[in-house]
Design a protein that fits this description.
Elements: H1 3-17, H2 24-34, H3 46-60, H4 64-82, E1 89-91, H5 92-96, E2 105-111, H6 114-124, E3 129-136, E4 142-152, E5 155-163, E6 183-184, H7 185-194
Parallel strand pairs: 2-5
Antiparallel strand pairs: 1-2, 1-6, 3-4, 4-5
């Protein structure tokens, strides 16, 4: 591996670990610019960055990282229980174990109609902000979906809302660019139990 590529990976990891950047593309682009590289075609793969981020956190955040992950997973679990009728799945850095204090809890919901979810939120008096986000299915296909932002205690929650028929459809994670791994309510419960939480 060439020296510049390794420097870009290490700097991108620091940016992610410090919470300065929250997605891999922004982190590696910013890191590359710090080293005077403006191209994008030879940037490190997201998988390389994720692997190094895990190593970095194991070395420099060995005590705090497990506590951050446990707290975020517990909040995710209680949020998922609240939204259980919409078949919630935990995704992203909280599931992967690479979340920082600033990382949002990312959850996918699967709804028959958005109106049903809107009524649920109204009845529960949950204030939220809604935006549209385009997610990639693969390198050629993408789909625009609504994403809801709200707070659960002191944790930021980001819920991507999919049609119920898309429950088996896989997407690329917007932060890592890797195929999204999902964990159901049952799997998150098991994950917390395995880690002694």
């Amino acid at each position: 591996m060439n020296v510049l590529r390794q420097q870009i990976i290490q700097q991108a990891v620091r940016l992610l670990a410090e919470g300065t950047e929250v997605d891999y593309f922004s982190a590696k682009t910013k890191a590359a610019k710090m080293f005077g590289y403006s191209g994008q075609h030879d940037l490190p793969a997201n998988g390389e960055i994720e692997a190094e981020l895990k190593k970095y956190q194991a070395i420099f955040h060995a005590k705090s990282q497990p506590l951050i992950i446990e707290e975020k997973r517990r909040t995710a679990l209680s949020t998922m229980r609240c939204f259980a009728q919409f078949k919630p799945c935990l995704v992203g850095s909280v599931l992967a174990g690479t979340a920082t204090e600033n990382s949002p809890i990312e959850i996918h919901l699967f709804v028959e109609s958005f109106k049903e979810l809107a009524l649920f939120l109204l009845n529960k008096q949950i204030p939220y902000e809604l935006i549209d986000r385009t997610l990639r299915i693969n390198k050629r296909e993408s789909k625009t979906i609504p994403v809801m932002y709200f707070s659960a205690g002191d944790q930021a929650v980001e819920m991507s809302i999919f049609p119920a028929k898309d429950i088996r459809q896989k997407y690329l994670n917007p932060a890592s660019g890797l195929m999204e791994v999902r964990a159901t309510l049952k799997k998150v419960t098991q994950l917390l139990a395995q880690n002694g939480a």
